[in-house]
Each structure stands twice: as C-alpha cells, then as structure tokens.
Amino acid sequence: MSDRFTTFDVREVVKESEIITSFYLEPRTPLAREFVPGEYLIFEHRPENGEPIRREYSISGTRDDEIRVTIKRELAPEQGLQDGIMSTRFHDATMAGDTVKAAGPMGAFTLDRDADRPVVLLSGGVGLTPVVAMAHELAGTARETVFIHACENGQVHALGQEMRELATAHENFSTHVLYRTPIDRDQLGRDYDTAGMITQDLLEKLTPGKDVDFYLCGPGPFMAAMYDTLLAMDVDPDRISYEFFGPATVLRPKKKTVAKPTASDAPVITFAKSGVEAAWNPAEENLLEFAEENGVMVDYSCRAGTCVTCMTKVIKGSVSYSVDPFEQPKDGYALLCCCVPDGDLELDV
C-alpha cells in the first residue's frame, strides 16, 4: 500500500436511505491540508489474489475533526455479475470502531472559492455527495445558491432533511428536489417539490440570472442530459464544472470539432488486440480518449489516474504523463487516462 494512505478510525455509521450510508472518519494523523468542497478520498482494498482495488468516494461534509463520506451500495446490473466490491465492503463489514485506509483529499472537481457569481448545484442520485459539501460552504455567504437534486423517490433520497434545514437557516440558499416516481409515503412539498424529470423550462425558472456557475454530479445518462440542456440554454461551457458518480467519461459540446492531425510524421498508435492502428491526434488529452475516438473500448473508472482500471501493457514504445497518476504503474504498463505517447506506440488492448 502506498505511504500516501492514512489510517482513519470509523467513528459513526449513519444510514441515510435504503441504499446510501454515511461514514464519519477521523484521521489518526493530521491530513496534509483541509479539503476543498468537491474533493474525494481514495480507498484501497487488496484482495488475496490480483491487483489492488481502489475507489474514490466524495467527501460529503465534516464534523469537528471527522470527515464524512456517503456511499451507495452498488448492486450488479445483471444477475451473475459481481456487486460493487468496495461499496459492499463498507455497507456489510464496516462498523463504528473499525479502521480504514484512505488517501487524500484530492480531485479537480472543486468549488471556486474566489468567484462571486451565483451558483447552481445540480445532482442526480448519490451524485449529490460532493455538491452537499459545496452547499454547506456556500450557505450563509453573499452568493445566491440553488441546490437542485433528482432521484427516484424517498426510499433512495439521502441527506434531504439536511439540505432542507440548510435552506431554512440561510436566505441565500434554496433547494428544489425532484422524484421521478414518488411512492405513497412521499409527500409533495415536504419531501420533494416536483414529480418527474428535470426539464429545460424548470432549470431556466430556477437559475438565478445568466452569469452563473453550474456544478454537476451524477450518473452518466443524467449528466449527459443536463449538460446538453445547459448548452441549449446558451450556458458557457466554461461555467459548467462536473464530475461523474460511477464510471467517468467526458462531456463535450456537440458542436465542438476535434482537429485531425495533418503532420505526416504523427506517431502511430497500434491497439494490438483490437486490430486498430491510427495516427495520434494531439487534440486528444490522453490515450484513453484517443482509444475511444477510434472505437477501442478500454475498461476505466476514475479517469484521473487513481484506480488503475485502465492500466494497459505497453508492447512497444513509451509514454509521458500529462497528469501525474496517484502512483506510477509498474514497468511496462501505462495508465491510459493520463498519458500521451512519446512516439510510435503499441498497446496490448
């Protein structure tokens, strides 16, 4: 295990909904710095056989010297597949009095503390965790803040009462909750404000003016829909910060065109198992994006150089890291999500 991991004592475990639980963790040694709302901790599990498993869980708040992470139990989408290894370990085997190892805080999805613009916090499902931390910092400031959250119903809605109390206590902060399929015990006006999905009309109604910072977090389909909706509202993409909850990907304006390389000496990237060969496009930020653009699907999770899911064997050539990974991969391997080729390259994928 990396020496960047710290031991945390689990002080309290709080069930937030039928599938979401919060864990209050106190570090045994002081962290290198205080966290910025939006950041996460990296947790690692080392099975008896195989590579270590790492997962990132957003910090949803603090309490005295404790850090809170709020985790959804991830169930397999199909019978015969494995449930989320790390999330089930937390839900089934982690109790007050236990210890866990984590590294951080870290992450690029952070609240811009220097800005003075109004803020819209837009989340889906358990993607609310990092924006809840942002909400706590923004409440009571001069920045008008709107917290918009969408989920299935009250059975899976976490931290709802906490956000309603924050809105009651601070004039600059308001909330709007949507349940896609409310159940009988869900009460309109108490538990949620709108039944159904987030629409452009609703967003336009709730957004406080034109010059607004948007922070988005949620599952892939939700994020793609919200991003496209904001573009349809003529929101500047530079005003949209986002982080996926679950396997990450990249959002791009639909009208954006990626320049194709014109130099005849562009490095050639060969994906050996896929039978694909293409000239490197320097407009791509990393080899993972380049692979996807050329129809080569590589397993990934974090897209931030922490989870090692995209680690791939390098058959020929070498790479350089445009973003420093959490740990350098072992010799002969590359983390495709944060590296670019030094020249011609052949990958075992």
Extract low-pLDDT stretches.
Answer: 254-262
Which structural category fits the helices and strands?
A: alpha/beta
Strand content: 25-35%
* SSE run: EEEEEHEEHEHEEHEHEEEHEEEEE
Shape verdict: globular
Count of spatially separate domains: 3
Number of strands: 19
DSSP helix fraction: 10-25%
The level 1 CATH classification of the largest domain is Alpha Beta
CATH topology of the largest domain: Rossmann fold
What does this protein look like?
- The protein has 349 residues and is an alpha/beta fold.
- It has three domains: 101 residues, Elongation Factor Tu (Ef-tu), domain 3 (Beta Barrel); 126 residues, Nucleotide-binding domain of ferredoxin-NADP reductase (FNR) module (Rossmann fold), CATH 3.40.50; 80 residues, Ubiquitin-like (UB roll) (Roll), CATH 3.10.20.30.
- The protein has six helices and 19 strands.
- About 3% of the residues have low confidence.
List the helices and strands and how they pair.
Blueprint: E1 6-15, E2 20-27, E3 40-45, E4 53-63, E5 66-72, H1 85-93, E6 99-106, E7 119-124, H2 128-138, E8 145-151, H3 160-169, E9 173-179, E10 194-195, H4 200-206, E11 213-218, H5 220-232, E12 240-244, E13 268-271, E14 276-279, H6 287-293, E15 311-316, E16 319-321, E17 333-335, E18 339-341, E19 345-347
Parallel strand pairs: 7-8, 7-11, 8-9, 9-10, 11-12, 13-19
Antiparallel strand pairs: 1-2, 1-6, 2-5, 3-4, 3-6, 4-5, 13-14, 15-17, 15-19, 16-18
